[in-house]
Specification:
- This protein has one domain: Immunoglobulin-like (Sandwich).
- 16% of the residues lie in helices and 46% in strands.
């Protein structure tokens, strides 16, 4: 019975979609986001026209214009004109 329950839980966990925030850089130059997840902080360089996924759980993001937002992991950020908008 324990094996069946464990196998069912594993199957459900594997079939759950992974949520992640994504950022699209519509500018003509590289833009930097500072992402803080837990105690880990990193700079995320996004090339022109590039879309990246990050923040697979909750995180804080500092945008190119200095604004800081809390994300839950399913937002889409569009960067244009040096400003970021969350959709």
């Amino acid at each position: 019975m324990k094996f069946l329950l464990g196998a069912t839980f594993s199957l459900l966990a594997a079939s759950t979609p992974v949520l992640a925030a994504s950022a699209l850089n519509n500018d003509a130059e590289v833009r930097i986001l500072v992402v803080t997840e837990g105690s880990k902080q990193e700079e995320l360089a996004i090339a022109p026209g590039q879309t990246v996924q990050f923040c697979f759980s909750s995180c804080f993001v500092t945008m190119p214009d200095g604004d800081r937002f809390a994300l839950s992991g399913n937002e889409v950020i569009e960067i244009s004109g040096g400003r970021a908008r969350i959709k």
